[in-house]
Design brief:
By secondary structure, the protein is an alpha/beta fold. It has helices at 18-32, 67-79, 117-120, 125-139, 150-158, 184-187, 206-217, 233-245, 260-269, 284-291, 304-307, 322-334, 336-350, 355-371; strands at residues 2-6, 36-41, 50-53, 56-60, 85-90, 104-109, 145-147, 166-168, 193-197, 224-228, 252-256, 272-275, 296-298, 314-316. It is globular. The two termini are 16 Å apart.
Amino acid sequence: MKILILSWKDIKNPLSGGAEIFTDELIKKLVTKNYQVTLLTSKFRGSLDKEIINNYQVIRVGNRWTVYTKAFNYYIKYLSGKFDLVIDQINTIPFFAKFYVKEKNILLIHQLCREVWFYEIFFPLNLAGYLIEPFYLRLLKDKQVVTVSESTKKDLLKYGFDNKKIYIISEGISIKPLEKLPLVEQIKESNPTILFLGNIRPMKRLEHIIKSFELAKKEIKNLNFWIVGVGKDRYFEKIMRLIKNSIYKNDITYFGKVNNEEKMRLLQKAHLLCVTSVKEGWGLVVTEANSQGTPAIVYNVDGLKDSVKNNETGIICEKNTPEDLAENIIKLLKDKERYEILRKNSWEWSKEINFEKSLKDFEKIIYQIMKN
């Protein structure tokens, strides 16, 4: 089967995140089952117009903003009618493939944008995007949708999508869970350590974790904070200033971008992962941390409340505030018995969340769609 995926970012894009990791891993699995997959996406500085990544073809046209019209033109000119299935991956803005592709087509949505508009896009585009999103979603509500969480499904139902046409497939992680869970004293830092790992963007609300760290450190004197990730523009500069001006700056380590080996090491050695995003499709970094024996404390938002089973595999804050996050950090790090239960449960659950299951789920959906 030949599949075309329309997406505004690919795995090599500097702005790629959890959605792109998921897409890349799913395509790699599809290719091993003899599917022919092409990804039509946007260019970025230094990118090739065409290349083969992990045995699938990537075609790049336009930039972050123009990729939607450029992809339409490219499809009409070169790709029309050459595939069995077209997947419109919505990451903020849809490609509206249903209005011009000849093939059967479905939507792939990790999360709706909604309030994220106000964190990631400048005024007045953020307000325009927020107001327009419900309208274009309703234009697409007749389509079959693949998503990765119950939270996103509930969001879609609000905008008129058919419950019977929304399919939830398993998320997955590209790293292997530890085969055996070592004792805390064998693998963790000598000092209690919290970790942030991800793109340093406004929607991640890293400033909340910095504030919660400063509050928690008043109770846990030897607490450390590791920050892993890269960013740009004013928000990144703001975060660097907050670190520099913190009274506990000597206990905050900024690693920047790290390779996979270092990422694994940090995930294993940190005691807690903290995630304070505005919303997520799932919260891939939570499952990654769990797989390395590190539970997470997260805000009560879409996606994160799917990737954490409250008080079983981690903690979901009652209030999305630095104060509540700090209180949970203190309580959990001081309660060794509870910490060990969450650590073990999260590690066990992470073994059930994998791309083999994603592939099985996805193939069932494809079979059903192509049969109708």
